[in-house]
Amino acid sequence: VQLQASGGGLVQPGGSLRLSCTASSGRIFAMNGMGWYRQAPGKQREWVGGITTADSIIYADSVKGRFTISRDTAKNTWYLQMNKLKPEDTAVYYCNDLELKSPWGQGTQVTVSS
Predict the structure, then answer these.
(1) Which pLDDT band holds residue 27 (cuts at 50, 70, 90)?
(2) Which of 28, 55, 68, 82 is exposed most, by the fewest CB atoms within 10 A?
(3) Gyration radius of the chain's alpha carbons
(4) What average pLDDT does range 62-89 have in this prediction?
(5) Which residue from 80, 69, 72 is spatially nearest to 20, judged by alpha carbons?
(6) What is the mean pLDDT of residues 43-62?
């Protein structure tokens, strides 16, 4: 499966961005759940949120109430709507299944700065 995140950019604090994740096949996400991850400079990659195989949408505490995950299964596309962005949200964002069984695809850079 090939994964690609897109939609990143430069945004001011308090702004919004919507990221997209496209998968060559949605099967891996149906089997293992879908997750968003990010890696800030000098830090380890961390989990941001995801959709479980039970269709529960879960978030890390650091983004809860600000980020929203959704999907369009017909398009094999998942979304991460990010609102009220903070400088500490600056990172490269990736998508992968929740069991990390897929190869990491291309991430997308999000920079929150004034």
Answers:
(1) confident
(2) 55
(3) 13
(4) 95
(5) 80
(6) 96
Exposure string of 84-96, with b = 16+ CB inside 10 Å and e = fewer, is ebeeebbbbbbbb
AA letter at 53: T
Element (H, E) at 78: strand 77-82
Task: Look at residue 24 in the predicted model and tell me its pLDDT.
Answer: 86
**Amino acid letter, 98:** L
Q: Which residues contact 95 (CB under 8 A, 6 or more apart)?
A: 3, 5, 21, 23, 34, 35, 36, 37, 78, 105
| Contact yes or no for 18/106 (Cβ under 8 A) | no
Q: Tokens 């995950």 sit at which residue?
A: 69
Q: Please list the alpha-helical segments (H only) found in the chain.
A: 27-32
